[in-house]
UniProtKB/TrEMBL annotation:
Gene Ontology biological process terms, A to Z: glutaminyl-tRNAGln biosynthesis via transamidation; mitochondrial translation
Reaction(s) this enzyme catalyzes, per UniProt: L-glutamyl-tRNA(Gln) + L-glutamine + ATP + H2O = L-glutaminyl-tRNA(Gln) + L-glutamate + ADP + phosphate + H(+)
Subcellular location(s) of the protein: Mitochondrion; Plastid, Chloroplast stroma
Residues the record marks as active site: K52 (charge relay system), S127 (charge relay system), S151 (acyl-ester intermediate)
GO CC aspect terms: chloroplast stroma; glutamyl-tRNA(Gln) amidotransferase complex; mitochondrion
Protein name as it appears in the record: Glutamyl-tRNA(Gln) amidotransferase subunit A, chloroplastic/mitochondrial
Entry keyword set: ATP-binding, Chloroplast, Ligase, Mitochondrion, Nucleotide-binding, Plastid, Protein biosynthesis
Entry GO MF terms: ATP binding; glutaminyl-tRNA synthase (glutamine-hydrolyzing) activity; hydrolase activity, acting on carbon-nitrogen (but not peptide) bonds, in linear amides
Gene encoding the protein: GATA
Description of how the protein assembles with itself and partners: Subunit of the heterotrimeric GatCAB amidotransferase (AdT) complex, composed of A, B and C subunits.
Other observations noted: This protein may be expected to contain an N-terminal transit peptide but none has been predicted.
Entries under InterPro entries matching the protein: Amidase, Amidase_CS, Amidase_dom, AS_sf, GatA
Domain Amidase: 1-448
């Protein structure tokens, strides 16, 4: 009830939810009854979780913040959602996002714009802006997002919460609306590293409904997180931390650079061996990402044809029905991505764009793998600046894309990364939060949680 009251009071300003469940209290009462009967409770019994609107839920609409899916109600729960419910969690509602995950501010939602809880004139980041804002404002305990090129990590940084982007395949994508299938992964938001770890524990693991989900065993994330009072003075003794030098150069806000440098010094105090690592291919990831993500999305989004789901604009001919339904159903950013992707994949341009981008992807993968052999973890800012003003980059897509420079390489390589707050744009909480990104080797989320927990 306390969370629902808070949600009701803050929602007019924040607009982080597209839909709030009607069943929260009745589900909570069921848990009360279980307690009365001394029945076994799941590890997340009664915990209120927000779910990004591109993740399917049986009892609530799931639109991906697109008009083309207005009023769509899936006939099933995404595997991640089902697993949360199996643990006793209560899904509080569906959070706002950029349409189909395409954007970095949540301004590309077809339905509403979400505000940053730290400053309501600023964007919460994106595309999982609603999920980040909801946790930041304590409208729910934790939330799910999706991360194709940074959509969990950048909004976590902008809203001052913890965001975990797991290894590709660690969490089933079954029931996640596909944006770019070779990059998409469901991730977690929490107000602490421990919360994010508990959430990943609940949703991770192989799923027979997703052939790309990994069969690797999921380690016990939380039991490895020692309470602060049990830690000695150099709890990270010997850990090799690489600071990616290209992420602290030109075009990066000075407050962000100094916060990351302060974080590096803090790692030294904790016993780490901190070194600068240069990755010359770092900036190549951004154009490669936008070519690959747009190409994959142009193929994935062809399922929204006005026949199979939602929005249909009637027409005499089938092709005009497709055209009219899509023209009316997709927002302008989505249309631009489909055009860019179709262009990059078309005969005559394929070699120059798509194939070349795939080669860059391999290069980025290799250089990150090498850097993660010489170092246990890599660190960088989660974004080149803190949250900016609403509208500031809305009509300048290239400026907005440039803001993803810190996060996209991690998706190209399929590796995990954790973002956590590490300072403010001005001295003290009157400024805007800044996020530190800690990158690890594939399937090494446990190390990221351990390091993040000690850092925090
Ligand atoms: N901002 C990036 C994009 O628009 C990343 C989005 C995401 O991770 N879903 O593609």
């Amino acid at each position: 009830q306390q969370y629902l009251n808070r949600l009701r009071n803050t929602e007019p300003l924040l607009r982080s939810f597209l839909h709030v469940s009607q069943n929260v209290m009745s589900e909570a009462e069921q848990i009360d009854r279980k307690i009365d009967r001394n029945e076994q409770l799941g590890p997340l019994a009664g915990v209120l979780i927000g779910v990004k609107d591109n993740i399917c839920t049986l009892d609530m609409p799931s639109t991906g913040a697109s008009r083309i899916l207005r009023n769509y109600r899936p006939a099933f729960d995404a595997t991640a959602v089902r697993k949360l419910r199996d643990c006793g969690a209560i899904i509080v509602g569906k959070t706002n996002m950029d349409e189909f995950g395409m954007g970095s501010t949540t301004e590309n939602s077809a339905f509403q714009v979400t505000a940053n809880p730290w400053n309501a004139e600023r964007v919460p980041g994106g595309s999982s802006g609603g999920s980040a804002a909801a946790v930041s404002a304590r409208q729910c305990v934790a939330s799910l997002g999706s991360d194709t090129g940074g959509s969990v990590r950048q909004p976590a940084a902008f809203c001052g919460v913890v965001g975990m982007k797991p290894t590709y395949g660690r969490v089933s994508r079954y029931g996640l609306m596909a944006y770019a299938s070779s990059l998409d992964v469901i991730g977690c938001f929490g107000s602490s590293v421990t919360d994010a770890a508990i959430l990943l524990q609940a949703i991770a693991g192989h799923d027979r409904f997703d052939a790309t989900s990994s069969k690797r065993e999921v380690p016990e994330f939380t039991s490895q997180l020692e309470p602060a009072e049990f830690l000695d003075s150099k709890p990270l003794k010997g850990l090799r931390v690489g600071v990616i030098s290209e992420t602290l150069g030109d075009g990066v806000d000075s407050g962000t650079v100094s916060s990351i440098q302060a974080a590096a010094s803090h790692f030294e105090e904790l016993g780490c061996i901190v070194k600068e690592v240069s990755m010359p291919s770092f900036s190549l990831g951004l154009p490669a990402y936008y070519i690959l993500a747009s190409s994959e999305s142009s193929s994935n989004l062809s399922r929204y044809d006005g026949i199979r789901y939602g929005n249909q604009i009637a027409a005499e001919e089938l092709s005009s029905l497709y055209g009219a339904s899509r023209a009316n159903g997709f927002g302008s950013e989505v249309k631009m991505r489909i055009l860019m992707g179709t262009y990059a994949l078309s005969a005559g341009y394929y070699d120059a764009y798509y194939k070349r981008a795939q080669k860059v992807r391999t290069l980025v993968q290799k250089s990150l793998k090498a850097a993660l052999t010489d170092n246990d973890v890599l660190i960088s800012p989660a974004a080149p600046s803190p949250a900016y003003r609403m509208g500031e980059k809305k009509n300048d897509p290239l400026a907005m894309y440039a803001g993803d420079i810190m996060t996209v390489n991690v998706n190209l390589a399929g590796i995990p990364a954790l973002v956590l707050p590490c300072g403010f744009s001005e001295d003290g909480p009157s400024g805007l939060p800044i996020g530190l990104q800690i990158i690890g080797a594939a399937f090494d989320e446990a190390k990221l949680f351990k390091v993040g927990h000690i850092f925090e």
